[in-house]
Specification:
Distance between the termini: 64 Å
Number of strands: 10
Shape: elongated
Strand content: 5-15%
Radius of gyration: 27 Å
Helix content: 40-55%
Length: about 350
Amino acid sequence: MEWERSNQCFKKGTQTAGTSTPGPKPEAPEYYHLCGAPSTSKNQIIRRLKNNGDLGLIINATELDMISGAIKQDYGKHDDVFRAAYHHESAATDYKVDGELIFVEVPRLALCLSGTPNQLPNFMHSMENGLFPRFTIYTCGARWKYRSAAPIKGKKDYVTLYKEFSLQVLEMYYFFQQSPTEVTLTDSQWEEHTTYFDRLLNEVASEQADAPGSIVLRGALMVARIASIFTALRKYEGAMRMKEYICTDEDFHAAMQIVQTTLNHSLLVSSSLPGDEVKSKPLKSYFRIRTVVESLPTTFTYKEIKEKALTKGISERSTCRYLKSLLELKYIDKQEDRYIRIKEFTDK
């Protein structure tokens, strides 16, 4: 306000003695915005990530259209920022019209989005640009049940309840600021983690020539992230101050089970991505030929699997390629004119 007054006086020539010429207009202070708007520009989201630093940025959208609509605009097209932020890779923007380089070295971004199957193609229409595998996906059907909105005597209303939750999260934030945590996994946990994702990646890759293996690879990363969150919560509950905390088997297996479920959902939803088409496709199980093998006896012939696969709409060429992969991975063995299943598939 003082600069505005000095500037107006300078323009009008009404400066008093001793009044200096106004310098450059002061910039407005930057504020933290923990929760960002889903409808935003690429420049603005990078600016928020830069200003917030280690605090990071959270974007919630109950409708996918809120964010997919912005991505399609000229000021949007920030899905590349989402891809970079997932791996904490640097993001920057530098346009002539702004005359300012905005650079964030280690972006920290959390997205929580929900929507209908028909809204998904506007946000991610294919696997091509790498955005889809970076999301942990969960699908659910509608369970119609009316719940009364009438207040219940002696019970907290949801506004009060969530305000208390928010204060608890704020306490956690201050706690971890004062006591950062390095989470480590045990040797046995790493061995189980490696064994599971190695087998699953082989099975996914053997199912299709253009298999979405990146879903599995990033699922392995999500296990470590979810296990770290569970471990941090344990540290907070116990008010412990050690810098290094070993993940418990309970928390590790909980993280594994969550990701095992979401991986199956991701593979399921990937079948509905329309690609160059406009509308999404019907959902169908990713594992098609595996179900054929599982429906056969332990010992089976090529004729039996070929006939069974053809009834499922799977070509003979695909069946041959899949059998070759299973032989290389030692899931089956061939003895004369018969195949024998010698190893079970990973849990679905």
